[in-house]
Specification:
By secondary structure, the chain is mainly beta. Helices cover about 0% and strands about 20% of the residues. It has a domain at about 30-85.
Amino acid sequence: MYCYKCGKKIPDDAKFCPYCGAEVKKPDEVVVREDGKGGLVIDAPEGSTVTISDEITVREDGKGGLIFDVPEGTTVTISDPEKGE
């Protein structure tokens, strides 16, 4: 499990994050938080599918990554705020 506030890996049975002290959210809650770089992070229960719009969903690939399901022909732009892109 990961802390919704600082993003660090914490024990599954923790009630508070040992790094930042934030209260641990229940694993069945969805939490949206800022990433500190102008973006948002969606923390959802493991195995969840998150719908961004009527046509775009995000799901785990089972290997620690994410799969974005978008309609064929959709243009996707990825930027890296750290590189100023």
